[in-house]
Amino acid sequence: MKNSICRAAMVFTLALWPLGHALADSIRIGEMSSYSANPQSTDAYRKGWELAVKEINAAGGVLGKPLEVISRDDTGKPDAGLRAAQELVTNEKVALLTGTYLSHVAVAVADFANTNKIFFLVGQPQSDALVWERGNRYTFRLFNSNRSQVLALAKMAAELPAKRWATIAPNYEFGQSAVAGFRQELQRLRPDVEFVNEQWPALGKLEAGATVQAMIAARPDAVFNATFGADLAKFVREGNMRGLFEGREVFSVLTGLPEYLEPLGNEAPAGWIVTGYPAEQVDTPAHKAFRDAYEKAYGLSPKVGSLIGYSEMQAIKAIIEKAGSTDTEALIAAARGVKFETPVGPLTFRPQDHQSTFGFFIGKLAVENGKGKMVDWKFYDGADYQLPDDVVKTLRPHAATQ
Amino acid sequence: MYDASTLFVQLLNGLSYSSTLFLVASGLALIFGVSKIVNFAHGSFYMLGAYVALTVISIMPNTAYGFWGGVLIAALIVGVVGCLIEVTILRRIYSAPEVFQILVTFGLVLVFQNLIFEFWGPDEVLAPRVPGLRGAVTIFGERIPQYNIVLIFVGPIFLGLLWWLTHRTRWGRLIRAATQDREMVASLGVNQTTLFTVVFFIGTFLAGLAGALQIPKESANLQMDINIVVDAFVIVVIGGMGSILGAFLAAVLVGVINAFGVLFFPQAVSVLIFLVMVLILIFRPNGLMGGRLIPQRPSDLSIDQPFRPQSRRAQQATLAVILALALLPLLAPIYVEVMMTEVFILAIFASSLHFLLSVGGIVSFGHAAYYGLGSYAAALVATRLGLPMGAGIVAAMLAAALGGVVFGWFCTRLRGVYLAMLTLAFAQILHALSVQMVSFTGGDNGIVGLARPAWLNSHVAYYYLALGAVVVATYLMRRALYAPFGYAFRSGRDSLPRSAAIGINVAFIQWGAFVLAGAFAGLAGALMAYHRGSVFPTDFSVATTVDALVMVLVGGVQSVSGPLIGALGYHIVSVELIRNLSDYWRLILGIFIILFVLKMPQGIVGAFMGRFGKGER
Q1: Which is more confidently placed, A17 or B520?
Q2: Could you give the CA distance from residue B552 to residue B546 in angstroms, rounded to a whole number?
Q3: Do A18 and B125 touch (CB under 8 A)?
Q4: Is it the case that residue B214 has pLDDT exceeding 60?
């Protein structure tokens, strides 16, 4: 027993010991993501930014100093994310924060960045609120907003004869805003369209058989899907077997991402119009170089997480170089309108809402050699699919653009 | 509004889902019935079954025999793993209070998650369609996959097998006997050890089987365990703990209600199952088929020594500690202050749980409900009404106390595991509401931007506020503990009939305790809301409750100062693990929890006092 007490005391002392052992004179970046809670995507994301950091440092670093990334697991929970942010700032003395995977964690950390006046570059989360209703002047977002993808999809959907739509989306922020955005835009373009069935399974708990049946019973002409991961796999298999997708157009967000397409194998639903990332087919020189380097480093093909992680560090490098220092105010001024190169082309952060012009791919799914793949895809420049400036102004708090 | 064929097919869909639910729940019910272990890790065996089946089936030939043989082999492997766990870990905690069992199995959940990730990696895999059952059959013009039709029969087949096993074999009779009265069976000379191991084998085999049968419908993924286990518990509770037929009826009920819920109220699907459970427990407190539970031992948390007020020396020591903590900001870096502020707030939360758990023997497994009510009340008052922080804190305590009034009224009519599960159900309902009422609660994104008054803005100032709050809250809770109210509350824990005999209205006293503990948990929630500047649905989550339970355990369930020490120890250990070992923290934390329960069940304070002192622990 005495031993246990000694041990507990030792753990406690060790815990209180600030463990910061900095590289001599480096630029310290605080990074966090849901590594333990959502390894399916964040694993590729980590590989992506690690590759970028290696390349940047091999080429002489930023402002003559190496980048040093201090990475934390936010465990998929906002309070753990906040704690990690707090610790990175007060203990590790990082120059800026970046990363996160889930939207609500990003919203929490963005609020932290705002109150603590620290620069925060959001990586993967796509929540619209991050740049609009809850946007603040310290927070920038790299990946495309949920809205930009569904705007593009709704435009295409409006050209179909389909009038009766059914939707299915996980019942949390991502799914809610995807459906709301799609519906709003489609009904704006086509006032005669009606939404006859909306399914809202809890994330990860879709009971696919009954749900697909309920959608069939509503006799829709077309379907909009925002489920992904395990829910998507269930939905697709039941839908294929029960004939939900026969004779119906399906518009779907995220389904073409390698993360979600690969698990489906030959069950991948041919004919769906999806947003995604046809990593193996994008052959621009910049993307080819990225893909080759990634495959060489890890022996795997990149996923969208890899692309985002890689681009995230490119953005940070460009922002710091433009700012000339790691002072927060200088970073904000520099980030607005900064130009930086990524595997999917040059991007910038819009000064009016801190959203990057990250584009997206839309294509049709097909099955080849027992695997799903995007065909007839096109790259859409994110700059063309943003809300109009006057709408942004009404949504975004005034102080956020100061 | 829907034609008959749709309704009929939807019934079949519900029944097909029921089979999966039944396989998982019957294993859980069997294990609980005999060993009285509340096996929170049951979902992990289900997940393990899915992953093992994927591997086994990929080796087997791609034929119908290959698939069904692979499923059987996978389930057997899971059963063997279950046996190993029973022999090495669970066997040691059969006589421990149920809250310890929940914690050990929760530690197992963490260990399984980490190990399965290590072995199978992060990629999700959907198994190929089942050979021979690749298509669909058409019933009244609607198509149903053949595999789902087969699944409809799996549930009743295993119900039959289990009935045969428990009614027609000697082993089965012993299992039933042990479910009714374990001690009697032992007195008759039956070797309980083997009996328990076999039961655990069957239970985990069933869970593994359910997981293996799921892979043609769902990609194996690392969230499967948590997604199924709460539903399985709800079914076991609805059916009556330990009753297999009850589990079957409940699984059918839940499966069918879910299928029609999808048709008629798609927005409410995630709350439906908990509402059903609350309704059933109001009218049948022991579940559909649950008989009267025979108490196995005198009340679980009763202790040999009553709590005693602090001695003079202990009081002096307490003052010295408070003084030292007050001086800490002069020496320590800011990060330490931030951490300690959280420790103080969590200590209040853990103390409020300790009050119900240790003093009253009430396992509040949904304690996060009060914490979340507090944090949301504070946030709503601040952001909607624009009132200052003081008003927010008062509102938080009132809201959480009101939660105590409502939930306490239902919960004090139940005992033991039923009570634990009902409190869990309330917390889950609030969690679902906080996610769904987007315009009111902000949904998943919660409410951000809570501003503290200017004088509290610095970390140091908030540190002192939290320190003051924990001192005052602890003092008040101790006053309650040593007041007649506290004595009466404890008497209810130690002996219901005797307390009743001397004229104590135990249920009423317990109801009061729910209100009191709720108010303090609400205070902790509000302080945390202002500390973070934001509130989120995770405040209502199972994980929040489990954290508090582990804190109480680490400090020592039977120690008045346990929650304070536990909050300090656990919060710092877990945060440091997550910070430094992002790939293995769940494994280490899980092992830490298991070892703690096995080796130091009396907690840090208990161990210390057992060696060095008497008096208040």
Answers
A1: B520
A2: 10
A3: no
A4: yes
Mind listing the pLDDT tens digit for each residue in B314-331? 888 889 989 999 888 888
Give yes or no for A1 touching B (CB within 8 A).
yes
Tokens in use for B226? 């948590």
Q: Does residue B296 surpass a pLDDT of 50?
A: no
H/E element, B534? strand B534-535
Q: CA B445 from chain center: how many Å?
A: 24
pLDDT at residue number B518: 96
Pick from A11, A214, A266: which is nearest to B263 by CB?
A214
Lowest-pLDDT range of A259-273, B297-311, B415-429, B553-567: B297-311
Same topology for domains A21-145+284-359 and A147-280+360-384, yes or no? yes
Residue type, A327: D
How many Cβ atoms sit within 10 Å of the Cβ of residue B5?
13
The third-level CATH classification (topology) of the domain covering A147-280+360-384 is Rossmann fold (3.40.50)
Give me the residue spans of the domains in chain A. 21-145+284-359, 147-280+360-384
**Cβ partners under 8 Å of residue A168, min gap 6:** A198, A199, A200, A201, A211, A215, A223, A224, A225, A226, A227, A235
Task: Report pLDDT for B305.
Answer: 57
What's the distance, Cα to Cα, between the start and end of chain A in Å?
59
Half-sphere exposure of B499 (CA within 13 A, CB side): 21
Touching check for B338 and chain A: CB below 8 Å? Answer: yes
Evaluate whether B374 touches B526 at the Cβ level (below 8 Å): yes
- Overall pTM surpassing 0.80 (yes/no): yes
Strand order through the sheet with A222-225: A194-199, A164-168, A222-225, A249-256, A273-276, A360-368, A371-380
Contact: A1, B143; criterion CB under 8 Å: no
Mean pLDDT along residues B231-248 = 87
Homologous superfamily of A21-145+284-359: Response regulator (3.40.50.2300)
**Prediction ipTM score:** 0.84
Chain B interface disruption, residue of A88, A136, A146, A200, most B CBs within 10 A: A200
The residue of A137, A237, A303 whose CB has the most chain B CBs within 10 angstroms, and thus the best one to mutate to test that interface, is A237
Do the Cβ atoms of A242 and B144 come within 8 Å?
yes
How distant is the Cα of A337 from the closest Cα of chain B, in angstroms?
27
CA nearest to B275, candidates B406, B419, B400, B422: B422
Q: Quick check: A401 and A295 in contact, CB under 8 A?
A: no
What would the mean pLDDT of B10-23 be, rounded to a whole number?
92
Q: Which residues contact B465 (CB under 8 A, 6 or more apart)?
A: B456, B527
Length of chain A: 402
Q: Over chain A, what is the mean pLDDT?
A: 89
What average pLDDT score do residues B235-239 get?
88
Query: Mean pLDDT across the stretch A350-371?
Result: 92
Residue of B nearest to A9 (CA): B569
Rounded to whole angstroms, how far apart are CA atoms A268 and B605?
A: 57
Nearest alpha carbon to residue B531 among B442, B435, B467, B443? B467
CB pairs under 8 A between A and B: 237
Enumerate residues 6+ apart whose C-beta is below 8 A from A117.
Answer: A138, A328
> Rounded to whole angstroms, how far apart are CA atoms B306 and B302?
9
With 90 as the cut, is the pLDDT of residue B161 above it? yes
Interface list for B 339-368 with A (CB within 8 A): 342
Task: For residue B24, name the pLDDT band (cuts at 50, 70, 90).
Answer: very high
pLDDT per residue as tens digits for the range B424-478: 888 988 988 888 787 888 888 888 888 888 888 888 899 999 999 999 999 999 8
* Helix ranges restricted to H, A126-263: 146-158, 173-189, 208-217, 229-242, 258-261
pLDDT band at A240 (very low <50, low <70, confident <90, very high): very high
